[in-house]
């Protein structure tokens, strides 16, 4: 009375992908010590020659930005190119 049952496989359907963006800030705390020293020279005919060496430090600041760009679906209405 009933014939064999047929199965039709359809292509998959996709819903739009949901994107979530999180942000994490990291603070780096660097203690900076500024030492000071006083030398008292008592006059006993010794000669002290003082020099003042100077050092430099370079600071490299780094930031990062990430942008989620949705896929393009053809030219926008009114878009004329460059």
Summarize the entry for a quick read.
InterPro entries: Spore_coat_CotD (IPR020108). The protein is 0% helix and 0% strand. The protein contains no helices and no strands.
Percentage of residues in strands: under 5%
Task: Profile the largest sheet.
Answer: none
The total strand number stands at: 0
Instruction: Flag low-confidence runs.
Output: none
Q: Any idea what the radius of gyration is?
A: 36 Å
Choose one word for the global shape.
rod-shaped
Measure the end-to-end span: 68 Å
Output the number of helix runs.
0
- Mean pLDDT over all positions: 77
Keywords: Capsid protein, Virion
Protein name: Spore coat protein D
InterPro entries: Spore_coat_CotD
Pfam family, one: Spore-coat_CotD
What does this protein look like?
The model has no long low-confidence stretch (mean pLDDT 77). The chain is rod-shaped. It has no helices and no strands. It is largely without helices or strands. InterPro entries: Spore_coat_CotD. Keywords: Capsid protein, Virion. It holds the Pfam family Spore-coat_CotD. This is Spore coat protein D.
Entry keywords:
single chain; 82 residues; little secondary structure; rod-shaped
